[in-house]
Design a protein that fits this description.
0% helix
Length: 98
Amino acid sequence: MKLRISIPLLAALWLSPAGAAPPTITSFNPYFGSVGDTVQIYGSGFISGSTTVKFGGPGGATVVSPYVEPTHMEVHVPTGATTGAIYVSVVGQGSTLT
């Protein structure tokens, strides 16, 4: 089953370390995929070791510790992912900015 992945402009949840700008998503590829497929996510503000990606909404299936660079990350669609938004969270040192 192919999933449709989207990024609603105002629906994504972004959390970042205190003092840091929230991460942004500028694009991702592919737009359709299945569990196990690789998704490339491009943007800014991603932090290695502190970035979590969720597929299908804020309560969606989570990918923890994805491959992360400051402007690019690569994740695999996890089991339990559903059609919907990609949510990116960046958390640092126990404090968050919403």
